[in-house]
UniProtKB/TrEMBL annotation:
Protein name from the UniProt record: 5-formyltetrahydrofolate cyclo-ligase
GO biological process terms, semicolon-separated: folic acid-containing compound biosynthetic process; tetrahydrofolate interconversion
GO molecular function, one term: ATP binding
Binding site for substrate: 55, 60
InterPro entries noted in UniProt: FTHF_cligase, FTHF_cligase-like_sf, NagB/RpiA_transferase-like
UniProt binding sites for ATP: 9-13
Keyword Lipoprotein carried by entry: no
Length: 198
């Protein structure tokens, strides 16, 4: 990664992180309800029966309600667990399962751990992001877990990043390893961006 791209990513992430921390509890509750409604509609539109999602941190657009409801409705939901080697293991979400703190302080599921290959069976990936641009390029938080996962999948299904409305930008700094997404889900809308992944 060139220093200029690295610096631009760091500066943008810092700005986005600060904005997220300023959201009130009432806003976060409304955000989570909005994200759930958008993701429910996306699942209905795509017919997905097996998906990956993530357990949101307090400052992220909330996904916990969506995950719990999807599991209750019989949708298979894989949740990621970070590994020290930069790969993601997966756990099948279960009703009322415990949540622990992962390697980087993020909420992660407790349960039977499946290998990184488990995600190859899903119909839809729902992933976190710091921001996404209008071409579908995603800016993550700098650890590369989801770029590695998406880059390693032979037949990648549609991928939607969950962000706030203000985090769909005209352009984000990008590097060669950065992976695009199919679209974004925000608390108020779902936007298709890139052509579906193959």
């Amino acid at each position: 990664m060139t220093d200029g791209i690295d610096d631009a990513k760091r500066a943008l992430r810092a700005d986005l992180r600060e904005r997220r921390q300023q959201r009130s509890e009432a806003m976060r509750t409304a955000d989570a309800a909005g994200v759930k409604a958008q993701l429910d509609a996306l699942i209905a539109r795509t017919g997905a029966r097996s998906i990956s999602c993530f357990l949101s941190a307090p400052t992220e657009p909330g996904t916990h309600e969506f995950v719990a409801d999807a599991v209750e409705r019989g949708i298979r939901v894989l949740l990621p667990i970070t590994r020290a080697d930069g790969l993601l293991d997966w756990v099948v979400a279960e009703p009322g399962a415990d949540i622990a703190e992962g390697l980087f302080g993020m909420p992660e599921p407790v349960g039977e751990v499946l290998s990184p290959l488990a995600v190859n069976d899903v119909d839809l990936l729902v992933i976190p992001a710091a921001a996404v641009d209008r071409t579908g390029m995603r800016l993550g938080w700098g650890r590369g877990y989801f770029d590695k996962t998406l880059g390693s999948m032979q037949h990648c299904p549609p991928v939607y990043a969950v962000v706030f409305d203000t985090e769909l930008l005209d352009e984000v700094p990008r590097d060669l390893h950065d992976q695009p997404v199919t679209g974004v889900v925000t608390p108020t809308r779902t936007v298709d961006l890139a052509s579906p992944r193959r």
